[in-house]
Amino acid sequence: MNMMSAIAAPEPTLSRTEVAGLVALAARTVPPLWPLESAIAVNPLAGFEEMPFEAALRHGASLFGARASLPLAQWRALLAEGRIDTRCLRDAAIGHLGGLYRARAVIAPGVTTLDLLMARLLHLPAGDSADAPPLAAPPMPPDAAFIAKWCAAFFDQGLAASPMPYRELGLYRAVLAIAGHDPAFHALAPGAGGQLLMTVAREPLSAIAEGLVALGVADTAAEAHLAALVARLPGWAGHIRWRCEYTDTDIAAGAPASMADLLALWLLLERARALTGAESGAGDQPRDTPPPHDATPQLAAHFGLAELAAHADNNLTRIATMDDNALGALFLTAAEESYANALVPQLQASAPAPAATAKPAAQLVFCIDVRSEPFRRALEATGAYETLGYAGFFGLPIALHRCGAARRQRRLPVLLSPRHDVTEAPLPGQAHTAAHLAAAATRDAQAKRLFAGAKQGIATAFATAEATGPLAGLLMAARTLAPRLTQRISAWVSPSRDAVLGPALGQQPDGYAHSPFILADKIGYASALFRLTGLSAATARLVVLVGHSGSAVNNPYAAALDCGACGGHSGGPNARILAAMLNDTAVREGLAARGIALPASTHFCAAEHNTTTDALMIFDRAAVPASHADDLARLEGDLARAGDANRARRAGLLGRTPQDVLTGALHWGEVRPEWGLAGNAAFLVGPRWWSQAIDLAGRAFLHSYDWRTDEDGTALTTILTAPMVVAQWINCQYLFSCLDNDRYGAGDKTTQNVIGGIGVVQGNGGDLRVGLPRQSLFRDDGTPFHVPQRLLTVVLAPLARVEAVVAANDILARLFGKGWVHLVVVDPTTGRARRWRRDAAPDTEGARPIDITLA
After folding, report:
1. What structural domains does the chain harbor?
2. 13-33: per-residue pLDDT in tens?
3. I want to staple 744 with a disulfide (CB 3.0 to 4.6 A). Which of 592, 736, 781, 806 is the partner?
4. pTM (predicted TM-score)
């Protein structure tokens, strides 16, 4: 291609409508990436869930240059620790070879094909050096660095000292207006970059159409070409998807950007590279595929055979040339089977319903979060308590306008949209204190803005450092040497906002269009608690709705410790709202009309479980009737004991003392305040008595469900298509962040910097990091704490009902049929377990349940 053809504006062969369609398809290459303050767990390969899991893994590895497996050394470490069963690994190897008959085929005297494969899995050195964990991220190509730099400037949330000009024009046009003054752009096309900027189309879709023609990309190859460009900066591309699809419109109003803007920039730079004769950058991202490694000599040496090659056949060649990703896939299968073989038989044994028991002393409804399960188990050990699991937003599609906050918070999973805007208001008798809190919040915000502006200004930066340095040093020393004392002093100076403010059901903040609650809404949300969990109307005297939160200081991933589904927000406000509804006389009358007649003696409370400290706080204590004071006092004593027990358990996992766990939640230098949802492996749908006798080790999401009260399957449909899907997102985020922490995760937390109030980058720039940091997945010595495996969903219900629900919902047929989630159904009367079969190849039977095979 000559220079003039690259500069000239060619006649597009695709219409703007066709280009828009291609851009929309290419955008699916990456999932939306939420800002850190409202973190959401997502599957980095969500765009490929139409593919079988294994094919998507290979495609993602090629597209993003990622590993498809942990390195063999780490898999072997998990095996040595007993977290993978050697028998399951052997079974996976036999399955890979085509069955026991073929596995026993003799390759050499005393050596079978199974022996060869097990030797590769367990003993021989890793074959592909490309699969080793990278010591450092590879340098970013100049064109990618150019785009990443301007994305960081464009999307900045008001933290930059000098805001990027022309943002109102949109990302593509703003960069066009500036690129002529950027030496980095001219370095890509020396002597011709300025002319290219003058001739290129100003409208993004037109620029894409022109660019594809100028670069000689055939129409049939356009989608793949654009998808490869999206994959080169998956972090910034994911942020654009979030901005376009999920955020409030006013965030992007002054600085619009779309995936077309990003792709128009990429094609501009590709044309600039073409002017210099450089190759297109779309293929720079994937790692080069190394030639197949032939392990035949190592296998011969391992078995002491000098002439193994003389016995060569297809089996030997196939085993000897397997790369580490293929070997790792067998470890992944073995890890999943090891877990299922340990869990499912216990669930089978406990399937028959127990005899009726006395009414519990209290009932507590926790979030399904895996961190709730061990706390529930510890509480149940202290007394006659019944615990249930329900989605932690408690079924309320709300947005909360917090007092003193500039923006509202969406307090619900991203699968849903807010239907109600709720504002915080002073609790009875707290108006004066609330006014002081609001004034203090305003002063703090003004001080932060003033300080940020002063430290970034050329004339004021040093003066600010001189003035604030000694005070900042004293505060840092106090937070380092006595973080818990510092917190107690802070709490004494300023009361807890939850003791002063609460969500007001009948008020609506100015400027928001969503309606407040009407009585029918309240009755509907209250009845859903009973319908979806199987909670009986014969409730205990005290029923506590327990949201959850986390604690971290100076931690960009703090929101991820609160909730991986609800934008990083705690569940306390939702619990308070639903509890107030359930205590409303009119709501109870409406429930009774629906057949849910609650005892007059039942009172609902709201609480919040801090998963980092294992403290559980009761809200709105003043509203608890005096008749229930003793019930509450006994419960709080047992909650404290359960917190102590679970904190001790968690301290052992972190290698600390229980007291140090409390300190870590407040220490500004702590990189691992808790393990988060590491270890998540299962999603159980059934009553608590089904799993209560099993130590689930904090690895299972627990959603309560009673098949006896759900004859039409509507409750099961809701559970599997909403909370279970969210659990799959979380599971995939942990799975892929573990398999390749550099490409699918966020890398080392200690070398990250927060950029633009949006996300983190490694070092001083580059792409936004996606997924989880290394410290959330690996121990300090580099061995995995999280065992990467796909989600195992186990449902206690009649098989026919589950089959009908899956058949009626495409998302379930895809997740179960394509192997993204394993499904096991346990019959509630016989305890028989059936495993859902994967979608079959065209020449075999279709997908249907099959009997589970247990090692």
Report:
1. 3-64+139-283 (no CATH), 72-125+292-331 (no CATH), 361-427+503-678 (no CATH), 433-493 (no CATH), 679-738+789-855 (3.40.50)
2. 899 999 999 999 999 999 999
3. 736
4. 0.92
